[in-house]
Structure formats: structure tokens, C-alpha cells
Amino acid sequence: MSNPYLEFAKELGLIVAIAVAVLLFMMVAVLYIILKLRWVIARIQSRLGPNRTGPWGVAQTVADALKLFQKEDIIPCGADRWLFTIAPAMVFIPAYLVYVVIPFGAGMTARPLNIGAIYISAISSIGVIGIIVAGWASNNKWSLLGAFRGASQLIAYEVPIILALSVPILVTGTLDLDRIVQAQQGNFWNWNLFNVHQWPMLPIAFLCMLIAGLAEINVTPFDIMEAESELVAGFNTEYSGMKFALFFLAEFAASFTLAAIIVTLFLGGYQPPLHFLGAQVTGKLFGVVPLFSLVSLFWFIFKCWVVVLGIMWIRSTLPRVRMDQLMNLSWKALIPAGLVNLLLTGAYVAFWMPK
Amino acid sequence: MKAKSTYFKDFINAFVSIAKGLWVTVTHWSPARPCVTELYPDVMPELPENYRGVPSLPVNTQTGRSGCIGCGACVRMCPEHIITMELDKTDPKDRKPAKFEIDISRCMWCGLCMEVCPTNCLKPGRDFELACYTRECMVLNKEQLEQMGGQFTPEPKPEPEEKQESS
Fold first, then answer.
1. Does the beta-carbon distance from A317 to B21 stay under 8 Å?
2. Is 0.90 exceeded by the ipTM?
């Protein structure tokens, strides 16, 4: 019988190591996503984008982050100091916590939960409470307006996300993200998005998920809560320095999170697109690390990257929708479509699905 | 009276128009489409032929000086009164300016001085990096204007004998 304190210390050390690794991954991913977004939007607008800082401008976001760290941390008088300080953390921590259940590769989930899908939708909606707190604590009418819009957007778009989320969950019959990925094993026509030969309503769920997810992470067609041309900068008008950097980090981490969720649920997660592209790899690196988990990590990040590029493409194409159009889209189009889809899928699973 | 519902039609319209928009942006994204950004300090821009810069005095390579005869028409014409010209009175048969200054900090590039010049010796320069640290150095003297104007070789005049032959 080993020492229980030692066991506990080992467990704690492992948790801290995984947390730091995930945080580092998130930082690097966000820095590169921001840089790539600026390049992509520049190319689409026939500009060059950042190209002065470092070779080809790769150090641009690092320089921006360093500049933000040097800035004065202003708390406006009349603001609720305590809530104003805690709001960036309330936005950032949920964006970070979502990474706990995402399967980055085979056996590379930080903490596999058997209710992973529910955990993701629950945790990612906490972030909006942080946004409301930030808007209210700023003592600024633009911030408050942005926060109100954020609240109504949250109520309108949580529902279609959950309705769309339920469809692949019903078809695969589990809430565990790891097992959802394992159910999509094989070639790419076994992925939930292309699995139309089994159940043709899955692409509609994918579309609902994509549209509602874009609204959930506040990218441009649905960025009404920080609409620069209407509200000064929305909920983060009064923020500067490190706190603003945390908001920024959370926003771009959320776009990677959305890509990760979409990839996990609809695009086969870490499975290679064709069987011979890595699925047959066995053996271990240095006798410890299974080679397949490295291959699957590559495929997961590659697919997430493609989805993130797609989000950038949509974001640089579409103009911002109006508030009423946003509400119409959710209540009149996405929710009815999601409900009908869920009903048909439920009937399929109950009566016709081959057991 | 209620108009026919366009609910399902709107879905199709939305998808078609979004697809059109995405197609437009992806064609702009493709590497075949060049950027319009000018890399100014690294690559100098190519100025158009009729670029209108500072009024300057191009130097005739045959005489070694500009064609200015010191008539003072530009001084009188200038709406801002920024041209200062003093006639060189040493040789009454050879009219040339002793001093010719333009205060370009107040110049508005109207081009009236170039238009009124009887010998066409005031020409738009091709220099555009005109920033400096003091107000005094914005006043360009004759040497600077001649340097900005560059050099030109006048085309040989048609000889009078040929004219007589042809007429």
C-alpha cells in the first residue's frame, strides 16, 4: 500500500502539468489565429497585412500582446471595482475549461467525461455571464447595451446549438466525446457530416450548429454585441491593458473551441480522413507514447485549422446582421429547423435504426 | 389581405446570396490576384508621366542653367505670394534671376506659376519626399529648385533654311 499523500501529490502534479500544457497550447493557437486572421482578411481585401515585425510579420501578435501588457490598467470611477476586475476572468476561465473534455487525439483527453457534450454547452454559456458582468460593471451605456445584446443573443442561440448537438448524440447514442469520435472511425464517409447514407438529416444539423456557433462566439455576421460602428466597442469599451488582453484571448480561444466541437461531433474528430492515412499506425515512440495518438493529434489540429479558416472566410465576407434579423434567424429559422430535425432523428433512432 | 409568405423562398435566397458572396471573397483570396499595397520605403512607387510636384527649375544642359529670364510673372501670379525673385542686373543683355525662392510650406500646388511662365522653365518636379525638421528648410532656393528639376536637353530648333525651302 503506497502513501496516499504521495498518490495525491502525483495526481495534483499531473493535473497542473496538463493544465499548463493546455494553456500554452491555447496561447500559441490564439496568437497564430489572430495573425492568420489578419493575413486572410488582408488578402481578401487585396492588402498585404502585417509584414514588418519579424520575418513576414510573424512576430506581430507577440508585439501587440507585449504592448498590451505595458499599458495602464484603468478602472473608471463609478465602475464596480470588484466586478470590473473579476469579469475578464469570468470570460476567460470558461473558454479555458472547455478544453478539459475535448479529445485532441486518441487517449489525449485531459479528463474524459461521460457527459462531455452537455459539459461543453453548459460551460461555454457561462462566458456570456462574464460579458454581462463586464458591461454592467463598466458604468458605461455602450458597454451595458453590448451586454444586453449579448444576453438576448445567448438566449436565442443556446437553443439551436443544443438542438443541433442532440442529433449526432442521438445517432451515435452517447454523450461521451471520445466515444462519439470512435463511432466515426474509418474513412471520411463514416463521419457524421458525410454519413448521409445512414441518416440524411445530419448535414442540416451541421449547418444549424455552424450558424448558431458563429453567433455564440460573436464573429462578424453576428458580432452585434461589440459592433464597432454602433456601440464603441461593446462590452469591453472601458477595458485596457491585461484585462482587455484576456477578453481578446477568450474571444479567439472560443473560435478554436467552436472548430474543435464541430470537428469532434461532425468531422470525425481525430480520425484520419482515409483509413490508410494513419489509422493503421501502431507501435510506440520511445516505448511510451503511442504513435497513433501523435498521428491523430495531427489530424485533429489539421481539421480544426480548416474549420477555423472557414470561419475566417465567412467572417470576412458577410456584413453584420441587424438585431431584429439576428432574432428572426434564430427563432424563425434555426429553432424550427432544429426541432423538426430532432423530431425526425428521434423517430429514426426509435423505429428504423439498425440495432 | 396578406401577401403570400416568402418563408421558404427566403431560405433559398439566403443560401444563394451567401454562396455568391463567399465565391467573390475566395476569388480575391486566391494568390493569382495581386495585392494593391505599395511597399513604399522598400520599393519606390512609379510616378505617372504627368506627376505634379513642386514647381522647379530644370537645367538646360546646353547653357548650364535654367531658362528663367527673371520676368517676375510667376511672382505676380502666385496667389499665396510665396515666390521671391530678384533679377541679376550685372549684365542687362543676359536676363537671369539672382535669387529665386519658393516657400513650399505654403504652396498649394495650384500650378498657376507654371502656367504663366513665358519660357516654360518652371516645371513640376518629381520629388515627393519633402519632409524636414525646420520651417526655414521648407524655403527652397534656386540651387535646390534646379536640382529638383533635373536636367533637360532642348530639342534642336528647326533651321530657318529648311523652312524657306519647304515654303
1. yes
2. no
